Amino acid sequence: MSSPSTLRDLCTQVRRDIVRMVHGASSGHPGGSLGCTDFLVKLYFEEMQIDPSNWSMDGKGEDLFFLSNGHISPVWYSVLSRRGYFDVPELATFRKLNSRLQGHPATEEGLPGIRVASGSLGQGLSVACGAAQAKKLNGEDRWVYTLHGDGELQEGQIWEAAIYAAHHKIDNLISFVDWNGQQIDGSVEDVMSLGSLHDKWSAFGWEVMECNGHDLEDLDRVFKAARAAGGNGKPVMVLMRTDMGRGVDFMEGTHKWHGVAPNDDQLKSALSQLETSLSDY
Amino acid sequence: MLDFITADNSELEALERKDTRSGFGQGLLEVGQAHPNAVALCADLTGSLKMNAFKDAFPDRFHQAGIAEANMIGVAAGMTIGGLIPFTGTFANFSTGRVYDQIRQSVAYSEKNVKICASHCGLTLGEDGATHQILEDVGMMKMLPNMTVIHTCDYEQTRNATHAIAKHHGPVYFRFGRPKVPIITEADTPFIIGQARRVMTGSDVTLVANGHLVWNAILAARQLAAEGVSVDLLDMHTVKPMDEAALIESVKRTGCLVTAEEHQRAGGMGESAAACLASHMPTPQRFVAVNDSFGESGTPAQLLEKYGLGPSAIVSACKEVIAVKQGLPA
Predict the structure, then answer these.
(1) What tens digit of pLDDT does each residue of B193-207 get?
(2) d(CA A220, CA A196)
């Protein structure tokens, strides 16, 4: 693991990018993006075997990641650019006409790092299953990672994919749930409660783990544990506790910042809470 | 190849009959042999889709998806990322309407090389009734950018089309059916995506058909020939991209058009032909298609007759449109 301070600086920078991108577009989804920042920084900077400078759609020989809850595109775009998939200044085009940084991730404009469109929820786990099976058929000993919202688990296709992955013993698949307990209309508990996620995924035949999605050391632990559990005939699900809006006090812990852009004053306040900056775009 | 106009009835009756889905099954096996990266997925209808031969020959490349079609489409999209060519198999109903959003986002918008292979299309699925008789699928699929839409008429054409879509890079919706129908193409008849197949040359009316209705169009053309009407018959197996050049060339000579298909009139091949001609060469047209209704249980032949897709309906439509062309009361 890199020095915690380096990763933390990156996380702060990504959070600055997120609020600035959403402010610049006057639209977008800051809440989930801020909540998944630590996870995606850790994933892309320390966990995945990838070669951003030689990006290819097939990702041969590399680990793959699928963002199923595509609305948190700001955090993904920021991390991809900071990791070298494309130039950081391009973040300024987010959600604007003729941009490669579509409101929800897409392949049509050819943005490096994106292998399938997402936005309509519930589809990423199926796609990841296919990509993971292709890795096996091609004789590649590599991992496929996914991220899903907890509200997204209300989609039926997720559970079709859960059955499929267990049945076909897709054990090079490691999925994470952004377990923040919030969705657009309110708390997941109020909108459509999910019961025990641990028991559900376990009953569906997955190896289930939990972690704190903001503690880089705990993330480090769970990545190691997930890979150690992988390869044994079962897919792995990590239930990752997060706070929606993490890092900006007035956005934290509420569904109200799911898909709302900060105004000028709110941006100023948010950036004042995220002072460490590597370099803004 | 038989001359369908001069052949006598016994020669037509002697034509071998096979189901188009078996042409797909044989084609898929051959594609598996020719392309090591071809894989197949099926949603619990392996026997119905005739995918057993592929499954037996390539067990590691066959993936049972269970009764979970949305997931199957997504898995197929994911497999393309690793360079595989996935062929998904289920009934046309469950291949389209049930999974439209998955096809739209994960396949068409994402430009994935998935072959959506859809059997038991239309009324000729028969006794199972309207829940399973999809008549809207071509419309749904042709509206999607990046999607190629193919609907084949017999065993050999379906087998050849399976090879063609394997070689074509991009998403394809491939529609075929359940009943046994006469084999009217040869094993070596070329199948070229986007290129209509001329069945017979004529001068009085252009008749454009696809799928099972190519056979009914042939029967109609024979009847019309006996009455002195000459039919220019095209098999428009590729609905999208449509062979507009062939269509325009034909109606330039005949001045009128009948389209015949086992699909709703809205959203069908005839609608695409009309859109083409409206832009390039407005032409009187009649549509032989299901007219804004669901189907019902019955035998394929009964259903085609009841819903106005039989040879006699095609004959009437041709006479009517010729009258319109001539300025006579239809």
Answers:
(1) 999 999 999 999 999
(2) 25
**Residues B76 and B212 placed together within one structural domain of the fold:** no
pLDDT confidence bin for B1, thresholds 50/70/90: confident
The number of distinct structural domains making up chain B is 2
Q: Is B271 a catalytic residue?
A: no
Q: Is A57 in CB contact (< 8 Å) with chain B?
A: yes
B145 and B214 inside one domain:
no
**Catalytic hit among B30, B69, B244, B261:** B69
Searching chain B, which residue's CA lies closest to the CA of residue A162?
B71
Q: What is the ipTM score, two decimals?
A: 0.96
Residues of B within an 8 Å Cβ radius of A: 39, 60-61, 63, 65-66, 68, 70-84, 86, 101-102, 104-106, 109-112
Q: What is the pLDDT of residue A277?
A: 78
Q: Which residue in chain A is spatially nearest to B107 when comparing CA positions?
A: A116
Amino acid at A234: K
Give the model confidence (pLDDT) of A231-263 as tens digits: 999 999 999 999 999 999 999 999 999 999 999
Q: Please tell me chain A's helix, strand, coil percentages from 3-state DSSP, rounded to the nearest 5.
A: 45, 10, 40
Q: Which residues of B touch A157 (CB under 8 A)?
A: 70-71, 74, 102
Whether A254 and A191 have beta carbons less than 8 Å apart is answered as: no
Q: What is the pLDDT of residue A275?
A: 86
Distance from CA of A108 to the nearest CA of B (A): 7
Length of chain A: 281
Set out the domains of chain A in order of their start, with CATH numbers: 4-272 (3.40.50.970)
CB B174 within 8 A of CB B161: yes
